[in-house]
């Protein structure tokens, strides 16, 4: 706080224009406080813009994270695939709370309510291609919470995560992604009667919900700090799963939900009184996440994905997602992949 | 005083009856003074009291004191004083004994009739809430439509919780912390029920939203309702403990007064013997006997009552508390075991463990601790057997749970589900939980009977003590007065 006070004191000396510059710097300083802390407080007035450039520099290093996957291959002699083949089944981290992506239909004819959905179809496809489709027990699912996706991969508890997981630069530092298999973007979900019209100034005075460890929460926090969100909009206590946001919304504890459009559509499908508001305000791609260094597996999965785009993807979309996302599958199919 | 007319008859008139002489302490020496003083009080009264020249009137108390002092110089006077003191002591002894024992037996009544049943009611609220939550999660695991058994169990427990709350509300003092807790629970119960209904409705539609609602309802139960129910239960147990503490201490004031009265009676008889060489004074002997009976009755009766009540606490209440705690721990463990499968890893603790499995492990440790404690406290075969059986069930439960967890973490959900709620041929943990619950219920019934018997015995040992000691004390006082009066009559 003393740094800010000193900053204000120096602002008086700079005059009107100077004050504006310092005000901008102050916003940046507040947003990037941890970064700034390492520096001396003496150059605080000038340090702000500099620090901002530093963060965006990392972002510049990594543009288009969806194009950072290794090229596809059919080779199955790598250690990772070898181990999976030896074990006899693939362990896949999935969600069980995402309607039509990965969920358990309690009324399903299948015993015990097996997991099903678009992500589950893809996981089955991968397991069938690597281990052969003859055996139904070639795959084991593990339901994992949003904020445990990366730790589960790093600790080797799962071979891969197929769980509406957005390919992002920060995540690329911890895991390797396949080529994108789905295109979506962050979107706002609110009751039909709500004044909220999208990710804009209509969010003023609204309480917004997002899941812990989600891109949505990251985006919200950054935008709140940068002042891109109306200052009166509050981010509610994060919940373990995006679906918990719909519970809070129905109970009137929050006013709007921010999540991937694909998942927001799943939520809207479970409650006809809510709807997606405005256009998606980001473009994101879902990818299959695997351990860093398991390039043999990633290449193999990329090969499987190439084929899946040709046959299987569209059928699965029509089975699961047409009712919630609309019949036009082409806007959800990512462009032909580029590899690194 | 009523005796003034007699004084007019003259000093020679012998007091015919010794009986009513008790309050007549100042009578003897006042005879000479009385007539004049009567005149002096009567004559100036109509005109002007304390007219000029007359000495100021002394207070009645000062006059009485003088009279008493004068009386103490003559033997009949002394006898009158002794008689009065004896009567006073014995009556005081009886009164204090009656009062203290009435207090204690009222507290013992409370133990038997109000605070213990209330403590049971509070334990029932606590248990039925935990049970309802467990039933809700079991029903959920079964699929879109819950089984009739799990629905019945859930509804029954909700009803029992509501009944228990109504009972606790009627019995708690307005404004007390128990009353507040009951009111809060009364508000939370419909909220919880609403959440479970939403979970069911969504589940029936096949929406995963149902599972999210169930987890939310569970949080409400675990974080807001069960801690309050536990507080209520602890409060009621404290109240029960307080009633015990009021019922069991020895009535020392009464015992002290009794000893003093007996001592004074013995002293009076010794004095009598020394002065007259007569060994027995019937009145005083009767008074001594009555006092001794009261004192003995008081000490023996209370000792008996106390041991009965302490028994009912040590073998009843303590066992009941531990068994109730064990039962609640097993219910919570079961609820968490179910939720592990409902949530399937949707929530993780700080250490990266499944939130519900960690909670299950915690509750199982608690259950094991309480079962060990219950086995230690159990004092007979009938109490031990069900606790031992429950311990055995718990061990099998833990074993089967490990198998279920291994299957689940290995990705074999169906096997895990069968191992938890499956049919008996799948050897599910549900069987073990039911067996633990049944055995604990058996043990609770047994201990409740033990409590009731011991407490009733204790209560019975006290009954009759308050009126009995009062009546006997009156008899003793009469005896003392008669005995002294007999001696006094020899002076007439």
From TrEMBL, chain A:
Keywords: Membrane, Signal, Transmembrane, Transmembrane helix, Transport. It comes from the Bacteria. Residues 89-324 form the Solute-binding protein family 3/N-terminal domain. The keyword Membrane applies. Belongs to the bacterial solute-binding protein 3 family. SUPFAM superfamilies: Periplasmic binding protein-like II. The lineage of its organism: Bacteria, Bacillati, Actinomycetota, Actinomycetes, Kitasatosporales. GO terms for cellular component: extracellular region; outer membrane-bounded periplasmic space. Coiled coil: none annotated. The chain crosses the membrane at residues 12-33. This is Sugar-binding protein.
Automatic annotation (TrEMBL), chain B:
Residues 1-59 are annotated as: Disordered. Keywords: Membrane, Transmembrane, Transmembrane helix. Residues 20-45 have a biased composition (Low complexity). The chain crosses the membrane at residues 79-102, 250-268, 280-300, 468-485. The keyword Transmembrane helix applies. The keyword Transmembrane applies. This is Secreted protein. It comes from Streptomyces poonensis. The lineage of its organism: Bacteria, Bacillati, Actinomycetota, Actinomycetes, Kitasatosporales.
